[in-house]
Amino acid sequence: MSAGCKNRRSRKWRVAVAFAASGALLAAGCTSNTDSAESTTSTTAASAEKVEAIANTVPEAIKSSGKLIVGVNIPYAPNEFKDETGKIVGFDVDLMDAVAGTLGLTPEYRESDFAKIIPSIQGGTFNVGMSSFTDSKEREQQVDFVTYFSAGTLWAQPAGGDIDPENACGKRVAVQATTVQDTDELPARSKKCTEEGKPAIEIIPFDSQDAATNAVVLGQADAMSADSPVTLYAIKQTNGKLVQAGETFDSAPYGWPVEKNSPLAQSLVQALQHLIETGKYKEIAANWGLEEGMIDKPVINGAVS
């Protein structure tokens, strides 16, 4: 998968790319992907008016250009991916659009290899990165981060199910192949089951996250495990057929990387805090079904590990 390990690469996580293909559908008769409708409504949800006091904090070089150059790697639905027209859309995009609007800037999204985004920020090519980065202590040595979301692992199950991730011995769990859920989380849980004399977890890997999700919808698996934004988006897309199983665990903050010691970081903090206080942040998160990962207060360099 292209840039697949982007949000948790430093922690050896592999991102699950759910519904990344434009117009992707789950099996006929089960549920449909509504990326087109989502991206249409999100344009309105993401609009935000300039706040002069906050806009005046933007570094002069950026302010005079009128643009915020954003480095992005796709796809990673629902955060950043392309709709059927080729437009870059997603939760991250909507939120950055609103932040840029608050700062009186027009965002310009430039696609990049994931590994090149931070070096390009350091070199001045990009003002900010937007690619589901996990804010880590290691990365903070290179750039500063402005936190905007909290992500971890989250399970989903059919509506009416009673799966407990902490007691899933003998259950069938769908997962995207090579994700951390496939290589680390579920094998560890299964090993604990067998060590306690209980049946192993039947791990069912799929090449894509939408296939794993569909397996649960069709009853071919008892539950699924994925990164929390992916799971929350899958729940939203299946129109009530799936619900959460337990709570999000192993959470860490997503952050926007900016050049080390750049005053732009404080501008982004103030813009995001404004969006939180006005309810725009919640509106954008709810549009993508990601309310659970919302934060109350953005910070600069909020890594937990």
Note down, in words, how this protein is organized.
- There is one protein chain.
- The chain has 305 residues and is an alpha/beta fold.
- It has two domains: 9-151 and 251-293, 3-Layer(aba) Sandwich (D-Maltodextrin-Binding Protein, domain 2); 153-249, Periplasmic binding protein-like II (D-Maltodextrin-Binding Protein, domain 2, 3-Layer(aba) Sandwich).
- It contains ten helices and ten strands.
- It has helices spanning 35-45, 52-55, 60-65, 91-102, 114-122, 180-195, 209-217, 228-237, 264-278, 280-287, and strands spanning 67-72, 81-82, 88-89, 106-111, 128-129, 143-158, 172-176, 202-206, 223-227, 242-259.
- The strands form three sheets. The chain has a five-stranded mixed β-sheet with strand order 8-7-9-6-10, sandwiched between helices. The chain has a three-stranded parallel β-sheet with strand order 4-1-5, with helices on both faces.
- The longest helix has 16 residues, at 180-195.
- The model is unreliable at 1-44 (pLDDT under 50).
Low-confidence stretches: 1-44
Question: What's the story with the biggest beta sheet?
Answer: 5 strands, mixed
Mean of residue pLDDT values: 86
Tell me the total number of β-strands.
10
CATH architecture classification name of the largest domain: 3-Layer(aba) Sandwich
Q: Cα distance, first to last residue? A: 25 Å
SS-based class: alpha/beta
Level-1 CATH class name of the largest domain: Alpha Beta
Helix content: 25-40%
SSE succession: HHHEEEHEHEEEHEHEHEHH
Number of domains: 2
Relative strand content: 15-25%
Q: What is the CATH H-level superfamily of the largest domain?
A: Periplasmic binding protein-like II
